[in-house]
């Protein structure tokens, strides 16, 4: 076999075929079955980083809760998950969970112990003392130290027991600079839906809250997210142990926004994309019997 | 510019470069951040189809529960999700949810109403009547009609309120032909962990159940999955309204296996990958007041 003679036109044709094949491969290849509505916006670089702050504490259902919550974080590539444990040190339970979920590179593990005087005691009902204050403030401090005011980002408070849809995070991507996004929350405050009320010009004029509607911002922690630049502009915006029950949301929001500046999301507040679910405390009566007999059902097993 | 002369060796070099570039593109490109442990087995065609059967019924937390459960299904590409509603007809709530999750092509929506005499009445405690019997049997019927005995598959009963890890489904992929896989379940039967007990040869000899340990198979519905071929071999294996409380698992298993044939999974039953969580019934006192006044917090909104 001798030499092959190629004309310039033939070389151009070969190059075009080569480019077409590469474009075809890069466009059709899908490694996993993301829902289509999400795929279109999955170019992570174009998206703001969503800092999702999750205060948590040890109890029998903790790993179960964090495991199912990790799934929505896995599905939304622009979330940076900040888990803050109410403890002196971070735990191997959370470290292992983040490792197994493949989330080490886009998560931060912190600990911040609630001061003893603010801790729930024995039979205190769980609403009698503010919860998550120390932990959320530790996360806010971390965010202010590790981002700059020019970074595009959103800060969201994501409790470990609520139910969050993937679509909710799509909505957060739409939050404008220097604004706070708001949306309805299901199953909270004694209502099926607690939601912002809009006027004809789609400006938020109030909320439909039935519980303490006199609060400046009568909404749930799951019902808003804050543009990152606002946290840099208002370093005084934090949570406080000094405010009345139900006023934590109002406490941070009063520093960063006013009612009419809130940005209504989730199809102009007509869709529920997050639910205030609560998990039952499991009855461990048989475990208690074992314990009294010096035994355990879970020796060496992390539950 | 004249012709370009290429020797055979030069053509081979160009082809090799071309192939290397294509291999590089196809190997490095990742559309989403799946955890690494999962990526290795993400070649869907090599995997059995896991038929996950979820009985469900309308209540305020239903959409919240199914939404967070849909995330683990989205993350595991070889799951086929069979949702069976306790109703005369399938609902648009479930249809919309499957559509938005991008799961239409790998799910089946069924309905099967529990006969009135077996339905929980008013203040019956939720364990007083068997639940999910009619729905799980409808799903088993669908599976037997729509698969053949030579298909590779696994059948799992996935309730809508438990917490499931992605790793659990990796374990199910290991279930051998004509076998039933078993593993520990967290927070069930009054214990932190209810688990199979193995002897020195890693054969299952019993369970550590404290509640009704005399049952033939004293384990939870979340603690086992059945190789598809067994369901074709034993068409009589179904659930029954006629058995005592806590005996549904034993009822189906007695037709398809014996204790010593159970296949221990989850690191020889030393890891907890699924938890029997329960979601609180939300207090909707304010909604009730609105209802009495002829109002609602969720007109036109699906919660």
Automatic annotation (TrEMBL), chains A, B:
<feature type="binding site">
    <location>
        <begin position="276"/>
        <end position="278"/>
    </location>
    <ligand>
        <name>UDP-alpha-D-glucuronate</name>
    </ligand>
</feature>
<keyword id="KW-0479">Metal-binding</keyword>
<keyword id="KW-1133">Transmembrane helix</keyword>
<dbReference type="InterPro" id="IPR005027">
    <property type="entry name" value="Glyco_trans_43"/>
</dbReference>
<feature type="binding site">
    <location>
        <begin position="55"/>
        <end position="57"/>
    </location>
    <ligand>
        <name>UDP-alpha-D-glucuronate</name>
    </ligand>
</feature>
<comment type="similarity">
    <text>Belongs to the glycosyltransferase 43 family.</text>
</comment>
<dbReference type="GO" id="GO:0000139">
    <property type="term" value="C:Golgi membrane"/>
</dbReference>
<feature type="active site" description="Proton donor/acceptor">
    <location>
        <position position="249"/>
    </location>
</feature>
<feature type="binding site">
    <location>
        <position position="131"/>
    </location>
    <ligand>
        <name>UDP-alpha-D-glucuronate</name>
    </ligand>
</feature>
<dbReference type="GO" id="GO:0050650">
    <property type="term" value="P:chondroitin sulfate proteoglycan biosynthetic process"/>
</dbReference>
<feature type="binding site">
    <location>
        <position position="136"/>
    </location>
    <ligand>
        <name>UDP-alpha-D-glucuronate</name>
    </ligand>
</feature>
<feature type="transmembrane region" description="Helical">
    <location>
        <begin position="12"/>
        <end position="29"/>
    </location>
</feature>
<comment type="pathway">
    <text>Protein modification; protein glycosylation.</text>
</comment>
<protein>
    <recommendedName>
        <fullName>Galactosylgalactosylxylosylprotein 3-beta-glucuronosyltransferase</fullName>
        <ecNumber>2.4.1.135</ecNumber>
    </recommendedName>
</protein>
<keyword id="KW-0812">Transmembrane</keyword>
<feature type="site" description="Interaction with galactose moiety of substrate glycoprotein">
    <location>
        <position position="194"/>
    </location>
</feature>
<feature type="binding site">
    <location>
        <begin position="159"/>
        <end position="161"/>
    </location>
    <ligand>
        <name>UDP-alpha-D-glucuronate</name>
    </ligand>
</feature>
<keyword id="KW-0808">Transferase</keyword>
<keyword id="KW-0325">Glycoprotein</keyword>
<keyword id="KW-0472">Membrane</keyword>
<dbReference type="GO" id="GO:0015018">
    <property type="term" value="F:galactosylgalactosylxylosylprotein 3-beta-glucuronosyltransferase activity"/>
</dbReference>
<keyword id="KW-0735">Signal-anchor</keyword>
<dbReference type="GO" id="GO:0046872">
    <property type="term" value="F:metal ion binding"/>
</dbReference>
<keyword id="KW-0333">Golgi apparatus</keyword>
<dbReference type="InterPro" id="IPR029044">
    <property type="entry name" value="Nucleotide-diphossugar_trans"/>
</dbReference>
<keyword id="KW-0464">Manganese</keyword>
<feature type="binding site">
    <location>
        <position position="86"/>
    </location>
    <ligand>
        <name>UDP-alpha-D-glucuronate</name>
    </ligand>
</feature>
<dbReference type="Pfam" id="PF03360">
    <property type="entry name" value="Glyco_transf_43"/>
</dbReference>
<feature type="binding site">
    <location>
        <position position="161"/>
    </location>
    <ligand>
        <name>Mn(2+)</name>
    </ligand>
</feature>
<dbReference type="GO" id="GO:0005975">
    <property type="term" value="P:carbohydrate metabolic process"/>
</dbReference>
